[in-house]
Amino acid sequence: MLELKQELEQRWLLYQNSSEDLFPLYDKWNQSLYAGFDPTADSLHLGNFIGFISAVHFMRRNNKYVAIVGWATGMIGDPGGKDAERTFLSEEQLRKNEEAIRKQMWRLLKNIEETTGEKLKYEVINNYDFFKNMSVLEFLREVGKYVTVNNMIKKDTVRKRVEDPDKSISYTEFSYMLLQGYDFYKLFADYGVKLQIWWQDQWWNLVTWLELIRKKLDKEAYVMTFPLITDSNGKKFGKSEWNAIWLDASKTSPFKLYQFLINTTDEDVSRYMKLLTLMEFDEIDEVVKKHNEQPELRYGQKVLAEKVVEIIHWNKQAQLAKKLSEFLFWTEDKLELLSKLDQEELEDFIKEVGGKKYENEDLLDLLVNTGLIASRWAGKKDIKSGAVYMNEQKVVDMNQEIDFQNGICLLRKGKKKYAIIKK
Fold first, then answer.
1. Residue 130 confidence (pLDDT) above 80
2. Which residue, of 18, 156, 229, 376, has the fewest CB within 10 Å?
3. Is residue 335 part of a domain?
4. How much of the chain, in percent, has pLDDT values that exceed 90?
5. Which domain holds residue 276?
6. Could you give the strand order of the β-sheet that contains 222-226, starting from the edge strand earlier in sequence?
7. In the prediction, which pLDDT does 368 show?
């Protein structure tokens, strides 16, 4: 295993750090680090996943990862990256989001353990516990006294909103930084956490909390950032035409995650494999070499997509997403592929591709009921023009009987619109 700093650098996961001393310390094992997530939604997204992968490289060296679900900070809202104040979420919604993210963190970390075959050390904590018994006066004496407005206003997102006459920042949002700093202080003092890792745009926040720990405890802590990830075209990573790519399968299905990754440009394949997977560097090099022999086959993108979906949603979902992608975009004998699916896989295919259980409809009604056509009249027109296929054979008679093969009938309109009919 490479030294920690070398590993992080080669995987594009190191941008800044407060001290070089942190790397030999965390190479020696048995240290603790943390990264936190506010429950502003009921799921984390693919951008957050990079924080997990960064933490995994520390955990694989027998360090402990403390994951913070920021219920308390979520009550306020991070002003970072916003031109106006965030809308407050209700306490009920925050609790639901916090519980969903907590479960998601446990599932993801357990899945990484199974994927790597390694036992990892981690703990999930709600930062509400740090504040629930604390009065406003106690907070101002314990935290506010040690952090200057001079330093707080240096943060770009704060400074821009203060200097712009058309914008403003409320005291509530301004105090977010104090809450975030107290998180680090409490974790350092009560849990022995010496390192916080997060995105490069949080640098001013992070170094401010180091000063808080020095002033209150006269001890040294560390911070490290990883870079904001963009693709080769400069587009922020983790966004698509569906907006955010969520880690919750009910919000972004494993197939959609797979498709997002399989659309990675050739220039980004190697970098994303290093960033998002735990593949060894020599294995990545072999994949890239094979990919470059026939880039049009998208071999590198397929490996990338399969590996990432496997980590986030388990191997079974990765294989299903792979089969579904092959069905839609690569496999010529689609009926043969469908015939090899078990019932659970077939139901997942129907959910993603479209389709239904057969209810003795004639062909035109079936086309309408699956959404392939808008009306029987439109169906007659499409059949006449040769746009409708049954089991990959062109339909020439609107009264044609439904032909099931191994209990399945595959309908298609045009080149890409499918419906799987289950008998």
1. yes
2. 156
3. no
4. 67
5. 239-330
6. 16-17, 222-226, 193-199, 32-37, 64-69, 121-126
7. 97
